[in-house]
Amino acid sequence: MAKFPKDFLWGGATAANQYEGAWNVDGKGPSTADMLIGGDVNTPRRFTKTIDPNAYYPSHQGSDFYHHWEEDLNYLHEMGFKVYRLSIAWSRIFPNGDDIEPNRKGLEFYRQIFKRCHELGIEPLVTISHYEAPYHLTEAYGGWANRKVIDFFVNYAQTLFREYRGLVHYWLTFNEINMLQAPFGAYMAGALPLEDGAELKPDTSGAGDRLQERYQALHYQFVASAKAVQIGHAIDLHNEIGCMIAGGMDYPLTARPEDTFKTDMADNMRNFFCGDVQVRGEYPPFAKRFFEENNIKLDFTDADRQILAIGTVDFYSFSYYSSGVETTEKNTDKAAGNQTVSTRNPYLKYNDWGWAMDPLGLRTYLNRVYGRYQIPLMVVENGLGAFDKVEADGSINDDYRIDYYQAHINAMAEAIKDGVDLIGYTTWGCIDLVSAGTGQMDKRYGFVYVNRNDKQEGDFSRHPKKSFYWYKKAIASNGEDLSND
Q1: How confident is the model at residue 206, as a pLDDT?
Q2: In angstroms, what CA-CA distances link 51 with 33, 131, 170, 208, 293?
Q3: pTM for this one?
Q4: pLDDT at res. 179
Q5: Phi, psi torsion values for 252, nearest 5 degrees
Q6: PANTHER family recorded for this chain (predicted)?
Q7: Burial class of residue 107, CB neighbours in 10 A (0-12, 13-18, 19+)
Q8: Residue 346 φ/ψ, nearest 5 degrees
């Protein structure tokens, strides 16, 4: 029996603000991501209200996909991609976010990409909002904490659905929408205002906890997403529209009931709080107590409730990189994660950025989520950030990346045998791009190397790594041949 369905969607993923570059070209306005200075593993990224000509803003150039898109799509085609997940930069379509008319040059840029994808047999999977919003919405409206932003987003989404009808059939409304539950997400995901010079860290947005603002912003995104789902279906019945969650897989540190209970509660908040709203169309029962105990009072109308109930998603997609550990113990050894910090797991290996490598956690997560929702699932981010060494002959022998993918693809195959309806897999950063968390270029994920580094050196030329040929073989065999030879 085959490990994967014959129509399984193999591919990779990128995000406009980390990959595209050309931040002020052809009518694009500044986005929230364009105001973030790069950092590194020890130095947090920093927000500036105005552009500092002496500072490095990673999104301004990214990997220069804007000028390399044809070459890059050819690489994806050579690997045999069935699907390519990319995001659209909102401020390339509506420079200020509240504009009446869209920027035609921005629309045409993506149209040519989607047309070329179809010529190459690649299905586009488009994220409408991926960690960026027009910066004007932050300055003028306070970002997603303002209900008015719902209508601006809906107008933007409706424009995309109409313009790309027949070219795009798979959509995601918000990237890692549950990151607004973490302080780090206040600006990154919610476009909430920050003080000039504020640092972004996993445990702080740079401006306090802001629980009320973050959950109000999250609610407005839920409403905006649900409205977009309804509009997308009305414009094209063939549209499949999903949610996207930052998948959190945690274990209790000990067998103490308190550790297990804390782990279960973290699982509820991280994976099912947003999932329930977007898949089931209503807030989960545990949300009421959370709001009461944290004195959160939402602007939540009866009309909102009806919109959420009707605008449920067609599939559940998520990112998965690593797992964490929950405990009631104090002063435990900590490790980083996907914009989170948790206790270190003594049974797992960690990468250079402190992320645990746990393929079994992916199988567990897939079973857990599918058991709750019983709708198709898609892994739309998974990968290993690492320092890659270019050898004297130009080769890059990234066997560590191949090992990571082998284990995670095998875990997906086991989950499918378990009965999970998994329809696709897009690895993160299939062509090297800058990191959202640290703004680094040297934290590489791709199968294709981009000649650019953290010192802003390099000509953006591309060439395949060893993993490029390995993934090509894996796709061609539909996941049957994962050997590294």
Answers
A1: 47
A2: 12, 19, 35, 23, 40
A3: 0.96
A4: 95
A5: -75, 140
A6: 6-PHOSPHO-BETA-GLUCOSIDASE (PTHR10353:SF296), GLYCOSYL HYDROLASE (PTHR10353)
A7: middle
A8: -70, -10
Q: Scanning the structure block, which residue is given the tokens 């009806």?
A: 306
For 279, which DSSP code? I
* Residue 122 · residue 77 · CB < 8 Å: yes
Backbone angles phi, psi at 188, to 5 degrees: -60, -45
Neighbours of 78 (CB within 10 A): 14
Q: 232: Cβ–Cβ under 8 A, 6 or more apart, which residues?
A: 157, 161, 171, 239, 241
CATH pick for 9-476 out of 3.50.50.60, 3.10.129.10, 3.20.20.80, 1.10.4160.10: 3.20.20.80
Among 20, 213, 240, 381, the active-site one is 381
Specify the pLDDT at position 116: 98
Distances (CA, A) of 430 to 1, 160, 203, 238, 322: 29, 24, 28, 27, 18
- What tens digit of pLDDT does each residue of 50-70 get? 999 999 999 999 999 999 999
Q: In what order do the strands lie in the sheet with 36-37?
A: 36-37, 45-47, 199-200
Quickly tell me which residue has 């996907």 as its tokens. 338
Structure-block tokens of residue 189: 């995901």
Return the SS3 of 65.
helix
Question: For residue 332, is pLDDT > 90?
Answer: no
Here the tokens at position 390 are 């270019």
CB atoms within 10 A of CB 377: 23
- Set 20, 123, 176, 213: catalytic member: 176
Q: What are the extents of the domains in the chain?
A: 9-476
Q: How many residues does the chain have?
A: 485
Q: Is 258 a catalytic residue?
A: no
Cα-Cα end-to-end distance for the chain? 24
237-259 residue pLDDT tens: 999 999 999 998 999 999 999 99
> Coil, strand or helix: which one is 251?
strand
Residues 245, 178: contact at Cβ < 8 Å? yes
**Listed residue (278, 168, 268) closest to 219, CA to CA:** 278
Structure tokens of 131? Answer: 């960690």
Cβ atoms of residues 428 and 445 within 8 Å: yes
Which residues make Cβ contacts (< 8 Å) with residue 162, sequence separation at least 6? 235
Tell me the HSE value of 410 on the side-chain side, using a 13 A CA sphere: 12
- For the beta carbon of residue 434, count every other beta carbon within 10 angstroms: 30
Q: Which helix (H) or strand (E) holds 476?
A: helix 466-476
Quote the CA–CA distance of 170 and 236 in Å, as a whole number.
11
Helix 359-373, helix 399-417: angle, nearest 10: 30
Q: Has 20 been annotated as catalytic? A: no
